[in-house]
Design a protein that fits this description.
The relative contact order is 0.19. The two termini are 31 Å apart. The protein has helices at residues 2-16, 21-32, 37-62, 66-74, 80-110. The chain contains five helices and no strands. With 115 residues, it is mostly helical.
């Protein structure tokens, strides 16, 4: 369920907000609805990684690869698809660590005193 919430809320907020909203949403979701630490990272990573990869691939198809290939040349990458994979990886890592941070912050404040 957290996967779908993160995916949809991030997709909606990315229309109006800067790119770093991908860190705020998983943090808030895993602060509100915690799972295990391992799951917090991977759910957030996969949700935002899939979102960025899917939207990037859509833009790649719409432009026949012109935009992504030109940007890939700036970074000395062989093609635009590799650029899409790298951007999905980076976005996924940012979201994954943010989701893990949300879980850990909740864990800190929900512990019993003296433990």
């Amino acid at each position: 369920m957290n996967f779908i919430i993160i995916l949809l809320v991030t997709a909606l907020l990315q229309i109006f907000s800067p790119w770093w909203v991908i860190a705020i949403v998983p943090f808030a979701i895993h602060l509100w609805r915690p799972t295990a630490a391992f799951n917090s990272f991977w759910i957030s990573f996969l949700a935002v990684g899939a979102l960025w990869l899917g939207y990037g691939y859509y833009l790649h198809l719409v432009s026949n690869g012109a935009i992504s290939d030109r940007i890939a040349q700036i970074f000395f990458l062989p093609n635009g698809l590799l650029l899409l994979l790298l951007s999905a990886l980076i976005g996924g890592l940012v979201a994954g660590f943010a989701g893990l941070s949300g879980f850990l912050v909740r864990d800190i404040f929900s512990r019993e005193p003296g433990s």
